[in-house]
């Protein structure tokens, strides 16, 4: 099977950072599905893992944690899927990724693909949809009943990125929150509004002043999809007493957690690979989340965050996609489709 892999961790400008390779097709066993992949997406986790370091892999390592494809075969313990099912998933960061023609993935991490979208639109969704869903409904414990969220607000720092784009939709359309997103360029501001943000403010200017101008000086919830270090103090200022803050980006310096105490505020992390990494008892929840997302996409409640497509899937195009994501100005998601 065709695949794109690495053995050395190099800058994206180095043509050897990702290379085309032929590998033996794996066999499905246990609860694994063998999926023939039609489209994949690139996320910041891909570029973070690929970033330069001294480590050298003895065997080719395959990145990629977003995929849409068709089940080719199933392991002997599979109960949720059958050969021929169209599926989408993010998978498990501790295993070989989706940048290959065929991939093994545990059925509990997989959802039935929405029927109304094409493969590129579908592949843009899994990782960011799971991340946003878990952050909003599990970490921040926001109700999916709109009547519970009357006059409650959510600030999303980094609204035009992959996670921010779907978080805006889930928070505004599904939960009925007042959503304030941050963006700075005309095109990213327009994107956030199109995703359903009630207000868009500039993250390069004072957040507190802009929120006061909107007569929303404090927020019930904050989801930070950008620099945790940079926005930690502003978030403490903006969160309501007893409010909740969730971050998805690693901090680079220690965070002064005692600053949260006067407001009895909650701080939590969201990492969508936790369930897969630790084989948690509720691992199958990602199957349920993806099925619910697929339903909402088919109903037109949610829309794909696809914004850029490269084809075919090969090392050259994956390097281009990694470059796009590393530049930090991505709007929505970049997807690659078709093997040649």
Protein architecture, described:
This protein has helices at residues 44-50, 119-123, 126-139, 162-174, 186-195, 207-213, 228-238, 274-278, 285-298, 315-326, and strands spanning 2-9, 19-22, 32-42, 53-61, 67-74, 86-89, 102-106, 110-112, 153-157, 178-182, 199-201, 219-224, 239-247, 266-269, 306-310, 333-337. The chain is globular and about 60 Å long. The chain is an alpha/beta fold and 340 residues long. It has 10 helices and 16 strands. The protein folds into 2 domains: 2-125 and 279-337, Medium-chain alcohol dehydrogenases, catalytic domain (Quinone Oxidoreductase, Chain A, domain 1), CATH 3.90.180; 129-269, NAD(P)-binding Rossmann-like Domain (Rossmann fold), CATH 3.40.50.720. Helix 7 links the parallel strand 12 and strand 13. The N and C termini lie close together (11 Å). The longest helix is centred in the middle third of the chain and has 14 residues, at 126-139.
């Amino acid at each position: 099977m065709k695949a794109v892999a690495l053995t050395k961790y190099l800058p994206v400008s180095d043509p050897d950072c990702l290379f085309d390779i032929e590998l033996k097709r794996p066999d499905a066993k246990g609860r694994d599905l063998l999926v023939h992949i039609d489209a994949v997406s690139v996320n910041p986790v891909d570029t973070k893992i690929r970033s330069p370091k001294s480590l050298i892999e003895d065997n080719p390592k395959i990145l990629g944690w977003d995929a849409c494809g068709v089940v080719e075969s199933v392991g002997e313990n599979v109960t949720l899927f059958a050969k021929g099912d169209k599926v989408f998933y993010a998978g498990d960061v501790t295993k070989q990724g989706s940048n290959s023609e065929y991939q093994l993935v545990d059925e509990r991490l997989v959802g039935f693909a929405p029927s109304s979208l094409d493969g590129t639109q579908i592949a843009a969704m899994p990782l960011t949809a799971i991340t946003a869903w878990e952050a909003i409904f599990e970490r921040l414990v926001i109700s999916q009943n709109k009547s519970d969220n009357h006059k409650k607000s959510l600030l999303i720092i980094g609204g035009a990125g992959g996670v921010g784009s779907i978080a805006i939709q889930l928070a505004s359309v599904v939960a009925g929150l007042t959503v304030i997103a941050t963006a700075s360029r005309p095109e990213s501001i327009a994107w956030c509004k199109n995703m359903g943000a009630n207000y868009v403010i500039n993250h390069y200017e004072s957040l507190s002043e802009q929120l006061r101008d909107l007569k929303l000086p404090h927020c019930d919830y904050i989801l930070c999809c950008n620099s945790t270090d940079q926005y930690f103090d502003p978030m403490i200022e903006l969160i309501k007493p007893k409010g909740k803050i969730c971050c998805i980006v690693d901090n680079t310096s220690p965070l002064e957690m005692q600053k949260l105490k006067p407001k009895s505020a909650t701080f939590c992390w969201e990492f969508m690979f936790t369930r897969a990494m630790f084989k948690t008892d509720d691992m199958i929840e990602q199957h349920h989340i993806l099925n619910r997302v697929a339903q909402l996409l088919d109903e037109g409640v949610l829309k794909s965050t696809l914004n850029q497509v490269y084809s075919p899937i090969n090392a050259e195009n994956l390097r281009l996609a990694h470059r796009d994501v590393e530049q930090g100005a991505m709007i929505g998601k970049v997807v690659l489709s078709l093997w040649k």
